[in-house]
Queue: 2 jobs
Job 1
Amino acid sequence: MSKLLRALALVSAVAIAGVPMPAPSLELQSIQRAAASYQNPNPHLQEMFRAALLDTGKLAQYAPDGTAYIKTGDIPAEWLRDASAQARPYLFFAKDDPDTRALLRAIIARMAKYLQIDPYANAFTFDYRVWEEKFELDSLAYPITLSWSYWKTTGDTSIFTPEFQKALDAVLATMQREQDHPRNSRYTHKELADDGKGRPTGYTGMIWTGFRPSDDACYYNFLIPSEMFAVVALGDMAEIERTVYHNVVKASEATALRDEVQRGIQTYGLVLVPKYGYIYAYEVDGLGHAILTDDANIPSLLSAPYIGYTVPNDRYYENTRRFLLSQDNPSFYQGTVAQGIGSFHTPDHWIWPLALIMQGLTASSEAEKQDVLKQLLASDPGDHLLHESFDPNDPKRFTRQDFGWPNALFSEFVMTQFQGVSEIPMGDTSDLEFRSE
């Protein structure tokens, strides 16, 4: 009997007995070997990489229905965004390891169920209850890009079941509805302005979203990083519909929506700043208002090349990156130990490891990558794990004791930037049209 079948048998037996289900670490041989075999002259880096790579296995568990659940860490729920990112490093091992492929298939199958239950929800419990219904556009995009990346990495199309196609239908219908939120949507949330409806917006072709990837309410409801990610995901969806499901109609709808969102980004999302030239705004409303900043949570403006939206040497991205990593950015903070982007979700002037890692992943020089790595190691409060945010003057002051996402991203950073492992794309946007000055 395979490890997967043994695990499922154990889970089913426990569930039938009525005993609370345990959440043991999933010991995938390829992941365990990669962690154990990693050697580095810097023992601190060696310890942190090993802990980071193994972290997702500690937070994932199989369910009686054959799916797999990944809790975010010290909160007993699964976020579509976090879980997709937490699973991503295992793609590097999936091609050659059937147990890792099985786990990823089970993760994707669960997400397909979530998206059908409530496409406006961002987080769910182990028993499929909605934990939060904060509509975040990126939460719709993440499972699609994870599935596309799994397909392109392994060649395995078995994830594209009729259930998954229903999930794609739910995602596309929701995105199309929210393209004209004031007219078509009934979604409200108590944390949004104007009695839960959000501030006024103009029609832009982009997709309205209520919340940022930080789970904070948007101020203006066209969140440019999430629009960028939606463009990537819609391209992935179109390819899946066309190539796997042979549904030309749905593929055409996804492509048309992608192109409309892209035109909206290029028309409304770029702002001229004398010191930097044209840069991408963080949020806009389509009525002439914009917020110039960024947030550590991904998708972020800083992450645009990483999510597959653009290339690192795109002039608009280069301009934006210079702004984001400067004191002109309201969310850029500097301390004696580290400097980087934080979030309005956590204490003022605290830095997020997620943003530091993203700076390293999008850096063009070896010196900047090494500098980022040095700061990440310095952020370790003593447990060899990365946390949500930390005081850049005293890393022993941090938020979230257990937070899986930055550890998963850190393992990816080390593998791709220092071990020569090829990066795994999230989509192909080479045919996109970008604004010309």
Job 2
Amino acid sequence: MILVDTNILLDIVQDDSNWADWSQQQLDAASLREPLCINPIIYAELSMAFARIEQLDAVLKEGGLLLEQLPPEALFLAGKAYLRHIQRKGSKTNVLPDFLIGAHAAVAGHTILTRDVGRYQSYFPKVSLITPK
């Protein structure tokens, strides 16, 4: 299964002039290889682009994106990775969603389709990524 990061979906729904084409091409290609999914964190982030829940749900259904729940093991791993991040950076920053997404992929064995490489590579090096070259 391929976990689609929020930035990819926002590129498409907001028709980002720099990334919409690339993101759509990658999403289409990924959907031919494996099922696509998001998790509640991605759902919440993506909801900011929609006025109504029905609009968001329609886009997810049209795109064939499944909503997969976060297993407790992913939540635990996210907390540990975030703790390492705080220890390395010396302060708390507002990046916990990336750790929840990365941990979900790590525990479930998912690939992540994303444009944000850094944290995923640093804290979840075994997770396969689909990113811009």
